[in-house]
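Supplementary Text 2. Reproducibility record for the structural model of the 199-residue chain.

All settings were left at their defaults, and a single model was retained for analysis rather than an ensemble. We include the record here because the model underlies the residue-level annotations in Supplementary Table 4.
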Amino acid sequence: MNKKGLLLVLSGPSGCGKGTVLKELLATEENIFLSVSATTRSPRPGEENGTHYFFLSKEEFEGEIARDGMLEHACYCGNYYGTPKKPVFERCEKGQHVILEIEVQGAKQVINSQPEAVSIFIMPPSLAELERRLVDRQTEDEETVRRRLATAVEEMKQAKDYDYIVVNNTVAEAVKDIAAIIRAEQNRTCRMAEMIQDN
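Retained model, structure tokens:
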């Protein structure tokens, strides 16, 4: 029996370590793939079409929206960003798990339109730890860090709408927790319906 892959939605505030957790998860777990987003912004040096993003014109992107070809989309700083349905669904049909690393607004669109999606919110151990991590990056000034913390507080209020909350105390623990969620979700009764009917 060929089981469909899982559609996984992963969100969390800036500085919670979701990028690091995701990188480790993809390196250690088999059959998990990161969804490639589409955008209308220009490619940056070294970015390849289909690897880093699908680079579309504004007309192409709006055409995809009109055809219901996007799982989620939003406009930031005059550019569209979104997740094309086709490559995601093709992988899931092959039994591969696909992760969408997206912000809270995009996650809500996916959760509402795809009830079978499994949503996971990565939470920092505390706001104090989140602030420490943002400051330790040494990439932003104090005002930017304050804004990111204020945004993080608002985003963390949305965590209750997700299926799971994973606290990123350490990368290894968070990866272990997400891997356990994936294994449990694969074996939920609703996903094993074909096997039950066959017997």
